[in-house]
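Suppose a colleague, Dr. K., hands you the sequence of a protein chain of 398 amino acids and asks what its three-dimensional shape might be. Before reaching for any lab equipment, you can write down a predicted structure in token form. Begin with the sequence itself:
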Amino acid sequence: MAWGTTRAWTRKHATLIDTVFAIVFVGLFFTAYFFGDDHGPERGPDVTFADSVPAHVIAGATALVVLAARRRWPERLLILDTAVSVGVIIATGDRHPLLILAWMIVAYTFARRTNRRRSWLVAGSCIAAMYLAGGLFGAGGWTDPSNLGATAWPIAVVAVADATRSRRDYIAEVEGRARRAEETREEEARRRVAEERLRIARELHDVVAHHIAVINVQAGAAAHVLETRPEAVGPALAHIRRAADTVMKELGSVVGVLRGEDELDESTEPTRGLARLAELLDSFAASGLQVEHRQRGDARALPAVVDLAAYRIVQESLTNAQKHGTGKATLMVTYTPDAVLIDVSNAVAAEKAGKGSGYGLVGMRERAAATGGTVTAGVVDGRFAVHAALPATVKETP
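The predicted structure, expressed as tokens, is then:
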């Protein structure tokens, strides 16, 4: 936290920090320059313009300006330092060391803040201008070691700054990719959770709706015969108890998908499918729905996802027939080489028409779509008909 606060404060007061740095840097330079072994008070009478007060004033003022404001206008100040350096070379035939140091500091700042092409274009032009000035007006000429050194060092500084900027950009790109990848994984996890919740909700509706309908019918029948035929109440209550017990077991199996694998015991109950169609029809018959069941073609094993979808579609269709029909329904299951077809129809009771929520039909269509099949439903010739076509050769998702 302290480091983050310090960085925030330095960024907010960057100009102030640069100004203090410029004053200290120029002060230390002139202290070393005037009181060093090479430039002490015992200098001879031959004093050039570079060692005169005007040269030092110009160099010092330029260095203070470019160092104090280098983060605000690095390119302009780099050009300013170059222009002053070229002027000093032309006037004196020599470079001022303070201007060279200030130029390298500003060049480093400039190269780190701009792209490679522009940094080399501007900095390279400035280096070339100072080299030309040193070759044309310098005391040593083109091959003078000081002229070559004053060219090589700025090139090295720009190269280091460019490498630093490239590394910083690379790290930022890697971090950005990692952040985007993490966001993508989180989004994928949220999407999978939403899909799983939808699947569980659909499963709960398909499983529970049938048995709740059975309980409702039997409870109504028990209330109807309670006073006139008390002996008939016992079987109705037994049906209600069995249906409620089945609901509890189904709820336990569906909600079990929310638990971890280590929390679940291996289930020995067979998967719901058309092989258990007889049990389903018996439960409807016990609740008072007469189902005329016919089959075409030889029954055969189906892919698990198709088998479960077919079972649930039959269950939901007959549940709707029981809730909204007249107590009778027909069921036709047709096996073809490439598909299994399901047709359920029932007469619609006038007093119950249009009272459904429609979620059951949505669930059937979603189940069929998950296998690559289709479901159509609607009133045909006064009867509500459901037709489902499920491919028998669908490949299960691993």
